[in-house]
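Incident review: delayed structure delivery

Summary: a single-chain prediction request sat in the queue longer than the usual turnaround. Root cause was a stuck worker, restarted by the on-call engineer. No data loss occurred. The affected request and its eventual output are reproduced below so the record is complete for anyone auditing the incident later.

Affected input:
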Amino acid sequence: MATAASATTLYASSSISISTKPLSPNKPLSNISSTFSLRPLPIKTKTPRLSVSASATTTAFELGQAPHSSTPAKSLPFRVGHGFDLHRLEPGYPLIIGGINIPHERGCEAHSDGDVLLHCVVDAILGALGLPDIGQIFPDNDPKWKGAASSVFIKEAVRLMHEAGYELGNLDATLILQRPKVSPHKEAIKANLSALLGADPSVVNLKAKTHEKVDSLGENRSIAAHTVVLLMRK
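Output delivered after worker restart:
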């Protein structure tokens, strides 16, 4: 424990009196007289007492609990969230993007169905709401999510969004993969994603990019997606 205190006495001038004689147009200014008297006044200043003590603290993380705030989330007119996901592509797995099964010799190796687009959309919505990410809400070590359709995760994220008093303003997603070509399936993916979100297709945008044959994405060994969402207060 550390303490500190001090007191100081200061002196200041006071009791200033001024007396003047009436002025006349014919009288010089030297007839003005002034008297000043000074006497010390004690002024005591005291610094506040500081007390610091160390004590053991335990956080929610140390207890294995999800962190929470005692202050309710601030009600904002809109919220923005970003999501990202990446999965390895391996033979023997289906390639599911936005809930649509895409013919390809490789698919996403994952605990659930490995839908990289839906996973990053879920994370974007959760992020906008200030909630934990998809891995905390749907942990990949929980057997009940083994092989689960990612539409389950989307529906839960949408439920949380409405529960918080928001609706989707718009969504912009980018898929990154070398193969296969997404363009033949883009409209089907967009229509299914819009239906899962309960949103008009006009506010859902989907783009696809290759990775110019660079690293695992460009070598057809992985697939990634980015999503940005704007949530509007109802």
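Verification: DSSP finds five helices and eleven strands in the chain.
Action items: add queue-age alerting; document worker restart procedure.
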